[in-house]
Write a structure and sequence with these properties.
Number of domains: 1
Order of helices and strands: HHHEEEH
Number of strands: 3
Strand content: 5-15%
Bound molecules: zinc ion
Strand order of the largest sheet: 1-2-3
Low-confidence stretches: none
Largest sheet: 3 strands, antiparallel
Helix content: 40-55%
Shape: globular
Number of helices: 4
């Protein structure tokens, strides 16, 4: 068993967290997964230049994927907490920091940790 470097561990974790949120939003299509892979590849380069940013990778990958989805599919993830009004997307906070969360700026609430969106949306699949 070879152990992964801290950078590789962080990248694997970021990939898993963002994929979990995509699954929660039912947008984990093959081409969407490739957006995650693209982001992880770019952030691997980024964190190799700046190893101190290793704890920020999950939030950055989430934002990269959000931006890429906005161009191709539209807003993601849609806010699950506001009962009415225009559909709007959640934002990642902090934009550059550890322990990233999805927040709704309209309601001013933390909705879920990145990777835990399924719990907030009730998106667990009924089996
Ligand atoms: Zn909202």
């Amino acid at each position: 068993m070879k152990s992964l470097s801290p950078i590789e561990q962080a990248l694997h974790a970021a990939r898993a967290l963002v994929l979990a949120d995509l699954v929660a939003g039912r947008v984990a299509e093959a081409d969407v997964v490739s957006l995650v892979e693209d982001s992880v590849a770019q952030r691997r380069w980024w964190v190799e230049q700046w190893p101190d940013g290793v704890g920020y990778v999950a939030g950055l990958v989430a934002q990269d994927v959000q931006d890429a989805l906005l161009e191709r599919y539209g807003r993601w993830p849609l806010c699950p907490v506001c009962p009415s009004g225009d559909p709007h997307a959640l934002d990642v906070e902090p934009e550059l920091g550890p322990d990233p969360h999805w927040v709704c700026h309209q309601a001013g609430v933390k909705v879920a940790a990145v990777g835990s969106l399924a719990q907030a949306t009730g998106g667990a699949r009924s089996s």
